[in-house]
Amino acid sequence: MNSKPQHFFPEKSQDVHWQEYPVGYVSAAHGIGGDIILHLFAFPVIEITQLKHLRLYAYNKQLLEYEIKSLRPYKQSFLVTCGLENRNKAEELQGSQLWLEKSFLLNQKSGFILQFLGWELFDTNKNKNCGKVVDFGFNGVQNLLVIKTLDNNFFDVPFFKHLDYKVCTEKKRIELSLVEGLEELTYARGSL
């Protein structure tokens, strides 16, 4: 498990409407033939089996594109063959993020977490607005909503399948019962 949450947009202004979003990462190489294991940190699960190409962003901010030759479920991830020569080439991609087009994500049958970007988070325990969703993250176990508070601090809220929450589309608001003390675990954005 990661010791520190991975945040998706640490260097981009949150006022921009992006056309692509990160939905997963290359977690490892598999076998000697150059296959990679692709782990999704997206909830709900997206239908990536229809993808024809991978768009990966490496740590050096380089965009890498590959044609998918095969993609199949593998444990809690996907095993992808995309024409890499050998395991060494596959290992070079470890940690690269998979980005998909916004239109693809928002057309998913089950909806998608990115629809909440810019929405308010309302704590039903305290009956108050906690701030806005400005980013997303993944801590190795679950997705995180990154909330910007009214006093310009940030805190992470775990967001997972069995969480009891209510979506108010008209108000662009997520209502949930925050765990006591979670809102006090704030940080400055530069401290990521």
What does this structure look like?
By secondary structure, the chain is mostly beta strands. The protein folds into two domains: 95 residues, Beta Barrel (Elongation Factor Tu (Ef-tu), domain 3), CATH 2.40.30; 75 residues, SH3 type barrels (Roll). The strands form two sheets. Strands 1, 9, 10, 11, 12, 13 and 14 form a seven-stranded mixed β-sheet that branches. The radius of gyration is 18 Å and the shape is elongated. 27% of the residues are buried.
Strand content: 35-45%
Fraction of helical residues: under 10%
Full CATH superfamily name of the largest domain: RimM
Largest sheet: 7 strands, mixed
SSE topology string: EEEEEEEHEHEEEEEE
The strand count comes to: 14
CATH classification, class level of the largest domain? Mainly Beta
Compute the average pLDDT. Answer: 77
Shape field: elongated
Structural class: mainly beta
Low-confidence spans? 8-17
Total number of domains: 2
What is the terminal separation in angstroms?
17 Å
Count of helix runs: 2
- The radius of gyration is 18 Å
Assigned CATH architecture of the largest domain:
Beta Barrel
CATH fold field value of the largest domain: Elongation Factor Tu (Ef-tu), domain 3
Write the layout of secondary structure elements.
Layout: E1 6-7, E2 20-30, E3 35-40, E4 53-57, E5 63-67, E6 70-74, E7 77-81, H1 87-92, E8 97-101, H2 102-106, E9 120-123, E10 128-138, E11 143-148, E12 154-159, E13 165-168, E14 173-176
